[in-house]
Design goal:
The structure is a single chain. By secondary structure, this protein is α/β, with parallel strands linked by helices. Helices cover 31% and strands 17% of the residues. The chain contains nine helices and ten strands. The chain has helices spanning 19-34, 69-79, 91-97, 99-108, 153-159, 173-185, 207-211, 227-234, 277-287; strands at 41-45, 60-63, 84-90, 113-118, 121-122, 128-129, 164-169, 190-195, 214-216, 245-252. The strands form two sheets. An eight-stranded mixed β-sheet has the order 2-1-3-4-8-7-10-9, sandwiched between helices. A two-stranded antiparallel sheet has the order 5-6.
Length: 288
């Protein structure tokens, strides 16, 4: 299959030049490379511009509440661990409203791929500063600029014992598709923070702004198996606006996926298992 086999034909409800178009293309390319069956893929999203992405893919999808993307994705994975589950959300959805779920996803390590669209703003509600906007970002609510530092999701992932942490850029589709493939194949929580321009509301972090600062860890002496090296790299940015920004795989380590701790899931999807009515009644009695 090709990437076009994964894409729904028709227009997209995104602005011309929005990074979401390129992220969608990279995801479709990754799915084609993985050779998956359409029926075995579930893409889960919350509310936001990024949350519309599952509508444009030929996959099963669950579109739910703002900030609850990872909670729903975990539910899908636990109900049927044989599915390939991909969670998609924006920086507001995953880092703001859903920040608590992200922290525990790193800690639990479910076998889920998570793609975070990071453009520094709430694009669906007219560009308010998101947790990754950083100090000094100006919008209609903060005409004098925000006064809190930007949230660093990759640093949080290392601190919470994450197992696969990467950063991509919407303007580098080839690299991004490869990172998505690695994140899906990783036996655990495969997290990719994706930098992308918002042409309508973020006039600072433009495509050129990123292009002038990005560099690929693949050309550096970096060992993704070393959490200390990974932390040193992720702390390079966000920070001063003139800093170089690393992309690529920061951390790749092994730890048992969360769902393997449940003996019942070793038999496959919960809905396909047999129910012992006597054991069920015994359990109810024990809980009284």
């Amino acid at each position: 299959m090709t990437r076009d086999d994964w894409l729904v034909e028709g227009g997209r409800a995104w602005c011309p030049g929005c990074g979401n178009h390129r992220v969608l293309g990279a995801l479709a390319e990754a799915l084609a490379r993985l050779g998956l069956d359409h029926r075995q893929v579930v893409v889960v999203s919350g509310i936001g511009q990024a949350g519309k992405m599952p509508h444009y893919l030929k996959v099963n999808f669950l579109h739910g509440l703002h900030g609850r993307t990872l909670a729903m994705a975990l539910g899908v994975k636990l109900a049927n661990p044989q599915l390939t589950v991909i969670a998609v959300g924006g920086d507001g959805d995953l880092y703001g409203e859903g920040g608590n779920h992200l922290v525990h996803a790193f800690r639990r390590n479910p076998d889920i791929c998570c793609l975070a669209h990071n453009n520094g703003v709430y694009g669906l509600t007219r560009g308010q500063a998101s947790p990754t906007a950083g100090s000094g970002f100006r919008d209609g609510i903060h005409p004098g600029g925000t006064f809190v530092p930007a949230f660093n999701p990759l640093a949080a992932g290392i601190a919470c014992d994450g197992t696969f942490l990467a950063r991509g850029f919407a303007g580098a589709e080839e690299q991004l598709a490869g990172l998505v493939v690695e994140a899906v194949r990783h036996p655990g929580f495969g997290f990719v923070d994706i930098l992308q321009p918002c042409v309508s509301y973020n006039r600072v972090n433009t495509s050129k702004w990123y292009a002038d600062r990005l560099y690929d860890l693949a050309v550096e002496e970096h060992d993704p198996a070393d959490p200390r090296q990974a932390m040193a790299r992720v702390l390079e940015w966000p920070g001063a606006q003139d800093r170089r920004i690393p992309t690529g795989v920061f951390l790749r380590v092994r730890r048992e996926p969360y769902e393997r701790g449940f003996a019942a899931l070793g038999k496959g999807a919960l809905g396909r298992g047999a129910v012992d009515p006597d054991r069920f009644l015994e359990t109810v009695e024990e809980l009284r």
